Amino acid sequence: MVVRIRRSAATAVLPLLFFHLLSAFHGPVFSAQGTLSLLSLGAANCCASMFVTWGAHQTGNALDLLKRASEMIKVKRHREAVGLLNAAIEADPNLSEAYQQRATAFLHLCRFEDSGKDYKKFLELKPGTSSVEKDLSKSLQAQDALNSAYSHFDSGDHSKALDYINKIVLVYSSGCLEAKILKVKLLLALKDYSSVISESGFILKEDEDNLEALLVRGRAYYYLSDHDVALRHYQKGLRLDPEHSELKKAYFGLKNLLKKAKSAEDNAAKGKLRVAVEDFKAALALDPNHTAHNVHLHLGLCKVLVKLGRGKDAIDSCTEVLNIDEELVEALVQCKDHIHVEYYSTGIPHAMFVRADWQRGEAKLLTEDWDGAVEDLKIAAQKSPQDMNIREALMRAEKSLKLSKRKDWYKILGVSKTASIAEIKRAYKKLALQWHPDKNVDNREEAEAKFREIAAAYEVLGDEDKRVRYDRGEDLDEGTGMGGGGFNPFGGGGQQFTFHFEGGFPGGGFPGGFGFNF
User: Fold this and answer.
1) How many Cα atoms within 13 Å fall on the side-chain side of residue 517?
2) Is 144 helix (H, G, I), strand (E, B) or coil?
3) Cα gap 274→279, rounded to integer Å
4) Comparing C-alpha atoms, which of 58, 66, 105 is closest to residue 84?
5) What does this protein do (predicted)?
């Protein structure tokens, strides 16, 4: 009978067969007199030959596996290389090169403990190999650097952590997924959203179902205010793992933000301004760090507050828009190649700041900060010279500023802007008596100045035509005393002024020669 042994089973069967045959021939191999039995010798030689052939076959298999693994490492397919090297070491446990290559593959995958063990095993087989000793040192450095990166990440020193990842870990462990995920998290914390999108894209190209990469990339789009793309990333992740807590939080948080923002805009459009204010504030409270979106909410809130006449609150909201870090604005513009949303490709960030300057200028008009209003509206007009609404607002602000610098005749006489002619006359008579120089001999110079001012105020407000022109903000003849020294009720080179009071003053006049005609 011929026994056929399949080649694939030979590795297990032949060693057992060899030792079985030796045992069977052990007694007869040597005679009592030490003479070798020819028959036993022939059988022993046959088995020895079979064992040598089997050992050579195993070594050949191990070398073949080693060669294939080396090719996998060259194309950075380290996981496949590890599988081949496991088989090679199983076939030949003393194949030192297999340990070296497997250690290298482990290092690239940041399996540092496994890498260290294999490098040490190689050094047991081939002590003193300097190149492998250096590789072992690199493995230890990479492990320490990754631990340091996590430590700095937890403490908030994101730049330092990123240095450890870029300059050590990924230099020695280029295929380290753990380090790559940490890197995109660090870039997100540093607000480098363009790099987050790019780096996470490389991860997803290798593993399109990587949940961490989907989450971080979605957040980058979120912070760029590209909410549709962010939602698609979150949704894909949740289809893979519906119970992923971070993905659920990100997805439902964004949905709630969009709902609140839309409610605020709708109420503002419907004229429900007070409700809109509360909606805008609620939306802003959801994520204070979402700067790219919150600028729109702050601007919308500012516009509503201006309509409500709440100037101070409106200034605060528009200032939030204008205080945005210019570096973030640059980041938004630079990211337009990575995201597919009209917002970034049409220059809207520029228009957003124009509107913020404009609305803050309007708010400052409400608070009578004329200089501030002119300054903001000039900036807005320079940025958008064709906008007639801004030009009109600037003209109003400049007019208000000019009016604020002229004398307020109503205030000088102590009457309201709606005062009747009779009220103006009574106020004038009272103040003229109070500040007549002959009644203020101890402070005559101050009294003369006050008296001139009172007389000038009455000259304008006591004349219906001049009063109307003054109320419209028109420039009046400087002879009224509004800007020069032309008006002088005491003469001295100017016109002589005669006061007419009904009922006269007690005693028929003032001592010192200032007469009053009744």
Assistant:
1) 3
2) helix
3) 9
4) 66
5) May play a role in protein folding in the endoplasmic reticulum.
Query: What tokens were used for 171?
Result: 């230099």
**Beta-ladder partners of 517:** 500
DSSP-derived secondary structure for 467-492 = HHHHHTTPPPPGGGTTSSS---TB-T
What is the full per-residue pLDDT of the chain (518 aa) written as tens digits?
Answer: 444 444 443 444 344 334 443 443 344 443 444 443 433 444 444 444 443 344 444 456 989 999 999 999 999 899 999 999 999 999 999 999 999 999 999 999 999 999 999 999 999 999 999 999 999 999 999 999 999 999 999 999 999 999 999 999 999 999 999 999 999 999 999 999 999 999 999 999 999 999 999 999 999 999 999 999 999 999 999 999 999 999 999 999 999 999 999 999 999 999 999 999 999 999 999 999 898 899 889 989 989 998 899 988 888 888 887 776 544 454 444 444 444 333 333 334 566 667 777 778 778 778 778 788 888 888 888 888 888 888 888 888 888 878 777 788 899 999 998 999 999 999 999 999 999 998 888 898 999 999 999 999 999 999 999 999 888 877 775 444 444 444 445 444 333 444 444 444 433 444 344 444 33
Helix (H, G, I), strand (E, B) or coil at 30: strand
> Rounded distance, CA 407 to CA 78, Å?
85
Cβ partners under 8 Å of residue 44, min gap 6: 21, 22, 25, 29
Q: For residue 482, what are its two tokens?
A: 């509004």
Contact between 173 and 116 under an 8 Å Cβ cutoff? The reply is no
Q: Are 314 and 302 in contact (CB under 8 A)?
A: yes
- Which is it for the CA torsion 330, 331, 336, 340, positive or negative? negative
Q: Residue ranges of the alpha helices (H) in 30-77?
A: 38-74
